[in-house]
Amino acid sequence: MARRFGVVLLLALLIPGAAHARPTDAGITVGSMRQAADRADGRMVDAVLTTDAIFAGGARVPVTVRIYLPAGYRPGTAKRYPVLYLLHGGAGAFSDWSVNGDVAGVIAKAHSGFDGIVVMPEGGRSGWYSDWPGRTDGGFAPHWETFHVAQLVPWVDATFATIADRRGRAIAGPSMGGLGTLHYAARHPEVFGLVGAMSAGTDLRLDWAQDIISNSGWQSGASIGLTGLADGAYRVNRYAGGALDVDQHHQKLYRLDTVLGPHTTVGGRYDWPAANPTALAQRGAYRPYANRLVLYAGGCEGRAPCSPTDGETGIGAANLAFHTLLTSSGVPHRYCTNAAGHVWPAWQADLTDFLRFAYGPATHAPTMPCWS
Question: Which of 181, 195, 294, 297 could cysteine-pair with 334, CB 3.0–4.6 Å?
Answer without folding.
Answer: 294
